[in-house]
Amino acid sequence: MGRVAFAATPTDTPLHGLSAFGDLKYPPEATQLDYASPEAPNGGTFNFTPSSWYFNQNTQTFNTLNSFILRGDAPPRMELCFDSLMGPALDEPDTLYGLVAESVSIAADRNSWVFKLRSQARFHDGAPITPEDVAASYMLLKDQGHPDLALPLVDLRAAEVLSSDTVRLVFDGNQSPRAILAVATFPILSRANIEDRNGFDGDAMTALLGSGPYKVGLVQAGQTIEYERVPDYWGRDLLLNKGLHHFDRIRIEFYRERQAEFEAFKKGEILFREEYTSRVWATGYDFPAINQGRVVKREFPAEKRPSMQAWAVNQRRNRFKDARVREAIGLCFDFEWTNRNLFYDAYSRSDSLFERSEFGADGPPQGDELALLELLRSQLPPTVFGEPIMQPRSNGSGRDRALLSRAQSLLGDAGFERRDGFFHAREGERLTLEMLVNDDGLARRDAPFVENMRAIGIDASVRLVDPAQYQARQASFDFDMISVAASFTATPTRDEMETFFHSKTANREGSRNLPGIADPAVDALVDAVGRAETREMLVVAMRALDRVLRARRDWIPQYYLANHRASFWDMFGFKEPKPDYGFPVERLWWVDAAKAKAIGKA
Questions:
Q1: What is the C-alpha separation between 233 and 236, in angstroms, rounded?
Q2: What is the chain's alpha carbon radius of gyration, rounded to the nearest angstrom?
Q3: Has this prediction a pTM greater than 0.85?
Q4: 3-state secondary structure of 549
Q5: What is the rounded distance in angstroms from the CA atom of residue 8 to the CA atom of residue 163?
Q6: Are strands 572-573 and 590-591 parallel, antiparallel or unpaired?
Q7: With contact defined as beta carbons under 8 Å apart, do 125 and 77 qualify?
Q8: What are the pLDDT digits (tens) for 177-209?
Q9: Three-class secondary structure assignment of 233-277
Q10: Is the pLDDT of residue 337 over 90?
Q11: CA-to-CA distance for 251 and 35, rounded, in angstroms?
Q12: Cα separations (Å) of 347 from 337, 520, 562?
């Protein structure tokens, strides 16, 4: 298609793929992705603990098999059971290729998209995937889907069946220009199967009928789930699938706390895991299997995608509305002490909300970024126009007096008065803060942070709750402060930024706008992200957004790793290097029979 903006993509022309900016890497005649391994054997069981999840999924428990609604906790990787109109290539930052859809055509007004379906596309029961299924799926997800699915469909006006093999998605003109790049990856559901159920969110422990490379097998609620490879999967030889999905079974065990999971890994009950506890990574890998060379401990490069790990301070609660209060809270986190004493100096401090990417603000705004911000100057904090806000660097003592004194002054400036050892609002209410966590390790991490807050006069505490309660309280914004880790796409869209930062999601339960940001200036910058017609324009808008969010202090950035810390039993084959924009080990790797036999895992 040439290096043209997405807005210049040809209209009324069947396309095999879409790209936000620039060329498609793979031409229509391509038969496999460069990172695929069609020569690799199939078979075996991959028992692992997922390091990423989507929608309502939970890595510690599950009580529903419907991953596409807000209510309940679903197991990760349910998405492997469902196909979509199009799908991404993990070695490109912003492209989609046809999956259920053979081709896509863009209308001249760029408000509708016509998808021609592949005749061989089938659900697991053998029924064809029809335009009626596609149309029903989109309208159902728009009305009843998880917010991550429903929000990008707000501007979807209709899903129309045009013929026996074509369907049209019609938007109202208010959609982000690149919205289709997210929407085209949504799951296709069986209309007949949905009609047979007790509502979309009924029959919680009965799996929806899928069409993907795997289907649900063994289920032990809250404990274990297995996904079985579909041997006659209709799409196995397509560009996006050939040479992938080698395991006959993908098995996930659920543990309420990380140490129990690690002990299971040491015994060989789990075969692959990523390590998120620095103490364990530094000192815990001294057990028989690793000393015998049967377990591998190594790092893989992180994806070239922006990432955010931060605390959200809930501004829906009046005591946290003043940015000075949120700044004071942030000053109490001594990263340098924490990194040295708890993390073995493994992490780097986050300043940006888009770390590991080109989207982090740097230096005073200049050029196009400054011009964009000037349009909003009257609505922005003056600090936006200087150096971007950086997180405090402490003396590493754990109780940096200068930072804590600054925090106390900020609380006083915000109108709080200290009485009986704690700050109080003028109305008399004590300044309390409860940090909500769902893991013992996070509770230990946050304890020194809480102690510093208490030392300056914030009545702070940590509340450890079970996984289901944590998910429910997060979805309903029932918390004071909560930690989140998120990875954005390499080419963020307006819809993606809206769910984290836009006023329309501030009170939408289940959205990722955990602080409750509702600021017209932020909304305008999110819209600018959506309007970007070149990558250069996108970088400008994203840097401006990062700069403003940092100045507002809605989130308190934490830290990040440069690599994946992985450990696995040495029985797998895989191609290196890994793709730049994803690390789905369960889709990429395979069992190496000779290796497995050598370590007694045949």
A1: 6
A2: 25
A3: yes
A4: helix
A5: 27
A6: antiparallel
A7: no
A8: 889 999 999 999 999 999 998 889 888 999 999
A9: CCCCCCCCCCCCCCCCEEEEECCCCHHHHHHHHHHCCCCEEECCC
A10: yes
A11: 23
A12: 12, 34, 8
